[in-house]
Amino acid sequence: MRALIAxxxxxxVALALVLTITAMGAPTGETSPKPLLTTxxxxx
Length: 44
Fold this sequence. Notes:
Blueprint lengths: L1 H23 L20
Protein name: SPW_0924 family protein
InterPro entries: SPW_0924-like
């Protein structure tokens, strides 16, 4: 019985955590105006 109570409690805490993070929404950020260097330098 204790294991069942612990499992239900853990599930409730995990669900509350997911809902809290979802309610906070996506972080507001901006992309960098500088382009990323994605080219490989030429080999000698």
